[in-house]
């Protein structure tokens, strides 16, 4: 009996110690989260301008990409372009992004992240503005060829901006890279919501050109702001890139899985772009 009482007493002491350790661990976790929040509030002016310009550029790029989704199908039909052609207008954007991002990333240290950032943003704005002029373009292959060409140029600018944007965020937020990336992706997601909403409304108000005449100049203004406010790069950090690192990166087993996941995700999203507008025409909205 005495032995059993001693075992029960030891077990209770062990459980109390485990509970105290868990409480201490939770307390340390809360302190760490508070510490991270304090660090985010104490950003330097260099970090603030970098994050501000990156957020605005991500928002503008996503808006320019999605602003045509509500009405491009109808305009393509008016211009004697098939749904396959409308899909090509959307799909060529991703093809150029896939082809150019790796090359731009390998040459970024020579081009300069800052220069690549505002140049790419400016190209996005000019391309979006130019796309609005296609309303007066002759129908058929002329419209399709010019639309695909402008979208490819816009995609090249987006590849430049995005590659430089995340490179700058990595340099400036070495201790909070995940938080900075999350904020930038949040702004990009907001652009994906804002683009179709505003694009459909402006199309109803002013026709085909008005959505692009709004988003294009807006993006050009953001590029101009970035030119004057984006902090200069430290020349000591600019070194020639190591091309062998790309091959080493591709050999990591997790990389192909992540690429497959991204491809499947964008395949599902982009498949809706040229076809969803036609299905929504038969949807009736009831007032509650």
From TrEMBL:
Pfam families: MFS_1. PROSITE patterns: MFS. Residues 1-15 have a biased composition (Basic and acidic residues). Keywords: Membrane, Transmembrane, Transmembrane helix, Transport. Gene3D superfamilies: MFS general substrate transporter like domains (1.20.1250.20). The keyword Transmembrane applies. Residues 1-26 are annotated as: Disordered. Its main location: membrane. It is a multi-pass membrane protein. Residues 50-288 form the Major facilitator superfamily (MFS) profile domain. It comes from the Eukaryota. GO terms for cellular component: membrane. GO terms for molecular function: transmembrane transporter activity. The chain crosses the membrane at residues 51-71, 83-104, 116-134, 146-168, 180-202, 208-230. It is found in: Membrane. The keyword Transferase does not apply. This is MFS-type transporter SLC18B1-like. It comes from Lingula anatina (Brachiopod). The lineage of its organism: Eukaryota, Metazoa, Spiralia, Lophotrochozoa, Brachiopoda. The gene is LOC106151658.
